[in-house]
Design goal:
The protein is built from eleven helices and 20 strands. 44% of the residues are buried. The protein is an alpha/beta fold. α6 crosses α7. The chain is globular, with a radius of gyration of 25 Å. The strands form six sheets. It has a seven-stranded parallel beta sheet with strand order 11-10-7-6-3-13-12, sandwiched between helices. Ligand H79 is lined by residues 76, 78-79, 224, 227, 262-263, 283, 299, 306. Ligand H79 binds next to loops.
């Protein structure tokens, strides 16, 4: 063959390879195949955001942990219908007195924004089955079923767009109210389905979800209650296809499908990609380490409940909350922090104070959280690390959770032995440092005994 032919053949082969590699298919659950680039683009805002506010609000907020003699002293007060085994008809009557006259969408969104949250996830329908939006196929919702008669979810969605916060919604597959759903004898978990009525219920959910995507513009669908036996991975795949047809950019959590193995929020090691959903969902726990290649978000309460509970006073400290956020970021995950507003529509003052404190910290140190990736070192005895690649190089953020013994800290070699160019306190002055062995042995930084911030002080090292 002539040389020219070889060159042409080679070029064809090479361009074929190039096309192949840039189109490498990422199976994001069996319901979707997209290129790595398309997948990264779809997840980009969510990965950069790192910090969101979760809102649990429903008829359970009215009971606030009490039903007759029954008291929820600890844990999810939003589960009271199941815990106290309240009959459907009695529970439904709560709607008639649900009148959140103190509700102020602008204030809620501003509270999240001032805390440094980039997105809000609001319960649209929890396990109780009541819709906190204007469900087109039900009267058991905030507009048609309560004296309040206004669409609070639409107001929150509008405010989010106004204030530049991503609007996202929670939706429970398990439903303790719908007539297609059967209840075990003593409580509602896990709820079953009358086989002939399963399709009716799936269609009912799909119409809710269509509304949330098309009419309310939700950017994430945060499913829950997927553990009911009758819900299958095939159902999840069908639902994902339905949702992505409505909005291909939608992000869906892994509780849409059957991969999650427990409260750690992930599928069995190495199996996450085999199930539906874009991200893992640890609940009330921070994983010991991240899972490379798997997006995740941990959801955490400030006290022990999701829905408002007047009996629960076990509030986490500001320090714990900030450090949990830093910990999540250092492991490549997002932190979704919950508030449970009262039936009057007010976020409890204890939550407001804590969010404000997080905002104070984030205003100075936010650059070490947003858009960062996980810690590169096997151990970080000083606290945590986050990393940010940028046009001029790479920044390593060293998060100090406490004083450093004898004022010297050796940061191990980074980026294969790159030389540190500068070091400074985030929000402050330069920090003294020495490059060890031209970077091959890392960088020594001099840390004063008095740290600028008692919760977490951050040094930014430029490479
Ligand atoms: O909405 C909040 C809680 O009401 C809800 N999720 C957060 C975001 C929640 N529902 N249940 N739980 C939390 C705990 C449930 C645990 C179990 Fe299971 C369900 C145990 C057995 C079925 C999850 C699925 C853990 C193992 C399998």
């Amino acid at each position: 063959m002539r040389r020219f032919t070889w060159v042409v053949l080679g070029a064809i082969l090479l361009s074929g390879l190039a096309i192949y590699s840039s189109n490498t298919v990422v199976a994001q659950g069996p319901a979707r195949q997209e290129t790595r680039e398309a997948h990264d683009a779809r997840m980009a805002w969510w990965r950069d955001a790192r910090f969101g506010m979760f809102v649990h609000w429903g008829l359970y907020s009215e009971l606030a942990g009490d039903w007759k003699e029954y008291k929820v002293n600890q844990g999810g007060a939003e589960w009271i219908m199941s815990y106290a085994n309240i009959p459907r008809d009695e529970y439904r009557q709560l709607a008639q007195t649900f009148n959140p006259t103190g509700f102020d969408a602008a204030a809620w969104v501003a509270t999240a924004k001032n805390a440094g949250c980039k997105y809000i996830v609001v319960t649209s329908k929890h396990h109780e089955g009541f819709s906190i939006f204007d469900a087109s196929n039900s009267k058991y919702d905030i507009v048609d079923g309560t004296p309040y008669q206004k669409d609070t979810l639409a107001a929150i969605a509008d405010e989010c767009r106004k204030q530049g916060i991503h609007f996202c919604t929670y939706y429970s597959i398990m439903d303790w109210d719908h007539p297609s759903q059967t209840k075990p004898d003593n409580a509602y978990n896990p709820t079953g389905v009358i086989a002939e009525r399963k399709q009716e219920y799936v269609d009912y959910m799909k119409e809710h979800l269509r509304q949330l995507v098309q009419d309310y513009g939700t950017e994430v669908l945060w499913f829950d209650g997927e553990w009911v036996d009758w819900w299958t991975e095939e159902d999840a795949q069908d639902l994902c296809r339905f949702l992505w047809d409505l909005n291909p950019n939608l992000i869906i959590n892994n509780r849409v499908g059957k991969g999650r193995r427990g409260m750690n929020g992930f599928a069995d090691e190495g199996k996450d990609q085999e199930y539906s959903g874009d991200f893992g969902t640890p609940e009330q726990e921070l994983p010991a380490m991240g899972r490379p290649g798997v997006d995740w978000e941990t959801c955490i309460t400030m006290n022990t409940t999701w829905g408002f509970n007047k009996n629960d006073h076990q509030w986490k400290s500001r320090e714990t909350l900030v450090r949990q956020l830093v910990d999540a970021a250092s492991k490549g995950g997002n932190y979704l922090l919950n508030v449970g507003p009262t039936a009057a529509g007010e976020i409890p003052p204890e939550s407001i104070e804590r969010l404000a404190a997080m905002g104070d910290w984030m205003k100075i140190y936010g650059e070490s959280i947003y858009g960062t990736t996980s810690n590169p070192f096997p151990e970080t005895p000083w606290g945590r690390c986050t990393v940010k690649a940028h046009d001029g190089g790479t920044t390593l953020y060293v998060h100090l959770f406490g004083r450093v013994e004898d004022g010297k800290l050796v940061i191990p070699a980074f980026l294969g032995g790159a030389m540190a160019k500068s070091a400074k306190w985030v929000g402050g002055d330069a920090v003294e440092f020495t490059v060890l062995d031209a970077g091959k042995s890392g960088t020594e930084i001099i840390v004063p005994t008095e740290l600028p911030n008692t919760i977490d002080s951050v040094i930014a090292i430029e490479y």
